[in-house]
Each structure stands twice: as C-alpha cells, then as structure tokens.
C-alpha cells in the first residue's frame, strides 16, 4: 500500500482503533477485527478496480502462508471483501459490519474533511469537485452505518461536515 494522504498508514491505524472500540462495544471477534482492519487496504494502490476484492485475495495468500487456520482466514477474507462503501456484496457478519462502519467513520467529521481535501489534491480534483464528493458520498455515510455504536459515533461527525459545508457556502458566496 502506498502512503496516499487519505489512505495512509494513519488511516489504517484509525480504522483499526475504531474496529477495536466498536468491536468491544458490539461484542465482536477482536482477533478477526484487528487483522482485517490492518489488511483492509492492502491492495489500495491508487489504481482502478475493487481494492477490497483484490485485498481479500492478497490477505488470504499472506495469512495462509503465515499459518493462520483456514476457517479464520475465510472469515477475515469475507470481512475485507465486503468493507467497501461501493461494494455490491454487503457485509453480513458482525465483524464485516464493524470494519465497514469503521472505514466509513474515518471518512466523516474533521478527519473526513481532511481526507476529502487530501484526495482532491492527490487526484487534481477541483475544489468544486471535492465539495461535490460530500453530496456524492460523504453525507450518505451517516445513514449507512450498521452497528448501534457506529451510528452514535457518526452523528457528530455528520453534523461537523454539515457545519463545514455551510461555512464553505458562506465563504464562497453561494449563500448568505
């Protein structure tokens, strides 16, 4: 994984910490959550394609080579494969829902504003394009949380993004 500003090791650590926090509250399997969160973006390289599916295959290869039990590896593979916001295959297990929620939470709030800006810079996206990303994706995340714990955490992050967007509108003269 390259160290992109919005998908850096810092992102992985934050998602890991969120997985552990949510996993404890929701009584998930912390071993699966810790491993899945650390490997969830292993195939993210800035290219096209579904990094979650590619990452699940890469994680499977690595974990089997390290001698982890096949049943445990299968669970981790499923968690990684279904964590992505845009995935067709929805997370079914508690652990898959927790990772999905943690990854979405890291795209919200103050950190989400930073990450959207960093991604805009990395991809030469215009300011308006970056602001448009809030409507396209980020403001939808609040309603797409699976766990009760994540739903609580998402509320304040969602409110922060709304305040941020309102301030942007004031500063560029779209609304008074």
Summarize the structure.
The protein has helices at residues 9-26, 30-39, 51-65, 70-81, 94-105, 109-122, 127-136, 148-171. The protein has 176 residues and is mainly α.
Question: How does this model look, in words?
Answer:
This protein has helices at about 10-25, 30-40, 50-65, 70-80, 95-105, 110-120, 125-135, 150-170. It has about 180 residues and is mostly helical. Helix 1 (about 10-25) crosses helix 5, helix 3 packs antiparallel against helix 4 (about 70-80) and helix 4 (about 70-80) packs across helix 5 (about 95-105). The relative contact order is 0.13.
Question: How are the elements arranged and paired?
Answer:
Blueprint lengths: L8 H18 L3 H10 L11 H15 L4 H12 L12 H12 L3 H14 L4 H10 L11 H24 L5
- Span from first to last CA? 43 Å
| CATH class descriptor | Mainly Alpha
DSSP strand count? 0
The third-level CATH topology is: Hypothetical protein af1432
């Amino acid at each position: 994984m390259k160290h992109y500003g919005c998908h850096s090791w810092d992102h992985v650590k934050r998602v890991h910490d969120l997985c552990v926090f949510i996993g404890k509250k929701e009584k998930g399997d912390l071993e699966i959550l810790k491993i899945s969160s650390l490997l969830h973006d292993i195939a993210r390289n800035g290219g096209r394609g579904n990094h979650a599916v590619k990452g699940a295959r890469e994680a499977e290869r690595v974990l089997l080579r390290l001698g982890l039990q096949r049943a445990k590896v299968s669970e981790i593979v499923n968690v990684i494969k279904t964590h992505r916001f845009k995935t067709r295959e929805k997370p079914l297990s508690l652990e898959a829902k927790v990772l999905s929620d943690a990854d979405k939470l890291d795209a919200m709030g103050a950190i989400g504003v930073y990450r959207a800006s960093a991604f805009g810079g990395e991809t030469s996206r215009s300011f308006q394009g970056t602001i448009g990303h809030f409507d396209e994706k980020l403001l939808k995340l609040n309603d797409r949380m699976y766990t009760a714990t994540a739903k609580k955490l998402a509320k304040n992050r969602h409110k922060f993004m709304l305040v941020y967007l309102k301030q942007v509108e004031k500063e560029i003269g779209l609304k008074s």
